[in-house]
Structure formats: structure tokens, C-alpha cells
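ok, trying the design again with the full structure, not the truncated one.
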């Protein structure tokens, strides 16, 4: 690992402290009085009708399973192979399904579900992995998969019709996901030391987030919000090492589609309004892109390849269009187009640069 490589902003320990188990789950676990014993241990408790539990442990010692179900037509299945693994499923309400499969040493998996018709599955292979899922209300689904050592998933979904598919392959990766409403999230991390934080609140008509990070020590924060419309789509792909991305959009029917590849690159996107789009590709080292939009029906497209390039776009108003293309090193492109107060509409700006040390500035009011 390069001695100059930035470290993730949050350690695994800090991310764990961000998650606070709900009082019901804490009370149930205290009632079972789990302890680190040499022998394997299984505790099962069911109250209600037509519930099913299955537990299997093999090839090790110090494994523990807790399965608690209160209500009707729940199903809980836990299988563990290895040693010192802990699995917990706590289900209250109607027709929940929980599945945990762990193989390795000192892994920890917890599923807490309340409401109706929740579905959660956790699969972990390796050592020291931690995955926790909390779901409330109804009809939410989670699949959490981790392969490697020291990885972390913290997933919380509430309200209805949320879907999450979260995957990590490698070591010391961390993903935290919070969804409120009816959002869909698919995320994948491959490598070591990557950190991903996703927050989505799309109460009315849903929204989609897709994130992939491949490499080491990449960091991404993705937020999407909407209360009246379909939020739209955020798609982010980062490849390489020590890249960072802060991406957020609010409003409705928006699109952000980004690819960042190389070392030490930075993306910052803030889109507020409706029916706007940001699409772009940034390849190389130490490049930066900053875009703000606002208002409605605005479009930004960008492409840059090289090192130490900068793109900064600020758009307000309606029906504004900005396009930037840069090839080379140490180039800068800045576009500012009209404020809402001036009711600017139908403005368009295009910048194309090829070479080294070029600077382009466009301002339209």
C-alpha cells in the first residue's frame, strides 16, 4: 500500500458505533444471555402459529444461534460452519423470512424484522465479518453477501417495498445503507478498505441507486430524496484506488450516471430539482469534478482524461445545457449559467480542451 494513500473517513469501529440496536432486539438478546462458550449453542423461541425454525452448526466450537419468532407464519433458517460465529434472527409480526449462512471464524450476522412480509438473507464467508439488517413496516427485501475478512454491512429499511442487494468481496470494506419509502439499491465493493454510505428516502414513488467500487480505499456517499415524485436513478462506478465521490439529488425524475477511474480522483454532484441529468466519465489521476444544477430540465455532460484536471459547472434556472470535454493534464473548465432570479432559460455552453494547462471560463446570465 502506498504510504501517501488516503485512508477511509470512517473506520469499521466508527461505523459500528453509528448503528444502535432497537430496544426490542436488545431485550430479547439479554433474555437469552449469550456467552462465549467453548461448546456450540442454539436458543429457539416461538410464539404464534405455523412458524418454522431450522439451525445447523458444524466444524467448530463457540458458535451461537438465537432464533426468536412472535406472530404467525415466520420462517428462520441458520447454518454455520467454523468457530466463534454468532447468528441472530428476531422476527415479530406476520410472514417474515430470515436466512443466515456463515462459513469461517468469528463472523456475526443479525436480522431484526417487524411488521409484515419482510424477507432478509445474509451470507458470509471468511473471518470477522459483521452484517446487521433491520426492517420495519411491510414487504421489504434484503440480500447481504460478504466474502473476505473484516467486512461490515449495516442495512436499515423502513416503510414499504424497499429492496437492497449489498455485496462485498475483499477485506475491511464497509457499507451502510438506510432506505425509507420504496427504494431499490444494488451495491458491490471489490477490493480492500472501501467505504460506502447510502441514504435514500423516496416515500411516494420510489427511486433507484446502483453503486460499484472496485479497488482499494475508495469512499462514496450517495443520497437520494423525493417526497412527491419518482426520485429517479443514481448510478456510480469507481475503479482504482483512493477515489472519493459525494453524490446527492433531490426532487424527482432525475438522473446521475457517473464513472470515475484511476487514483485520487474526486466527484461532487448536487442536483436539486426535477427532470435534470448529470452524466460523465473521469479517467486518470487527481482529477476533480464539481457540478450543481438546481431548478428543472437541466443537463450536464462531461468527459475528462488525464491528470489534475478540474471541471466545475454551476447551473440554475430552466432548460440549461452544459458540456465539457478535456484531454490532457492540468486543464480547467468552469461554466456558470444564470440564476433562477433572472429566469434564465434555454442557455447552452460547450467547452472542449486538448493539451496541458488550458483554462476555459464561460459565464452566462
Amino acid at each position: 500500500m502506498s504510504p501517501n494513500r488516503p485512508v477511509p473517513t470512517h473506520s469499521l469501529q466508527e461505523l459500528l458505533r453509528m448503528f444502535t440496536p432497537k430496544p426490542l432486539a436488545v431485550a430479547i438478546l439479554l433474555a437469552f444471555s449469550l456467552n462465549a462458550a467453548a461448546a456450540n449453542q442454539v436458543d429457539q423461541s416461538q410464539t404464534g402459529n405455523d412458524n418454522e425454525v431450522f439451525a445447523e452448526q458444524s466444524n467448530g466450537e463457540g458458535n451461537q444461534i438465537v432464533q426468536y419468532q412472535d406472530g404467525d407464519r415466520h420462517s428462520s433458517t441458520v447454518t454455520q460452519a467454523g468457530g466463534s460465529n454468532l447468528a441472530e434472527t428476531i422476527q415479530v409480526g406476520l410472514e417474515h423470512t430470515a436466512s443466515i449462512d456463515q462459513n469461517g471464524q468469528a463472523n456475526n450476522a443479525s436480522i431484526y424484522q417487524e411488521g409484515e412480509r419482510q424477507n432478509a438473507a445474509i451470507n458470509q464467508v471468511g473471518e470477522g465479518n459483521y452484517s446487521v439488517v433491520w426492517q420495519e413496516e411491510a414487504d421489504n427485501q434484503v440480500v447481504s453477501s460478504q466474502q473476505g475478512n473484516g467486512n461490515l454491512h449495516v442495512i436499515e429499511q423502513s416503510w414499504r417495498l424497499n429492496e437492497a442487494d449489498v455485496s462485498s468481496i475483499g477485506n475491511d470494506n464497509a457499507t451502510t445503507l438506510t432506505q425509507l419509502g420504496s427504494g431499490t439499491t444494488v451495491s458491490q465493493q471489490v477490493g480492500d478498505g472501501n467505504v460506502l454510505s447510502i441514504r435514500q428516502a423516496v416515500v411516494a414513488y420510489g427511486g433507484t441507486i446502483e453503486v460499484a467500487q472496485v479497488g482499494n480505499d475508495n469512499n462514496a456517499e450517495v443520497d437520494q430524496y423525493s417526497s412527491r415524485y419518482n426520485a429517479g436513478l443514481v448510478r456510480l462506478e469507481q475503479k482504482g484506488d483512493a477515489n472519493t465521490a459525494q453524490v446527492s439529488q433531490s426532487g424527482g425524475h432525475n438522473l446521475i450516471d457517473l464513472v470515475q477511474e484511476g487514483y485520487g480522483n474526486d466527484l461532487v454532484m448536487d442536483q436539486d430539482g426535477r427532470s435534470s441529468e448529470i452524466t460523465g466519465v473521469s479517467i486518470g489521476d487527481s482529477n476533480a469534478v464539481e457540478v450543481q444544477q438546481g431548478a428543472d430540465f437541466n443537463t450536464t455532460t462531461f468527459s475528462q482524461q488525464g491528470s489534475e484536471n478540474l471541471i466545475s459547472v454551476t447551473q440554475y434556472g430552466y432548460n440549461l445545457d452544459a458540456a465539457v470535454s478535456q484531454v490532457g493534464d492540468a486543464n480547467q473548465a468552469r461554466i456558470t449559467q444564470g440564476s433562477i432570479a433572472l429566469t434564465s432559460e434555454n442557455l447552452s455552453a460547450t467547452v472542449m480542451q486538448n493539451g496541458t494547462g488550458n483554462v476555459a471560463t464561460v459565464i452566462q446570465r
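Keeping the full-length input from now on. Helices lie at 12-18, 23-32.
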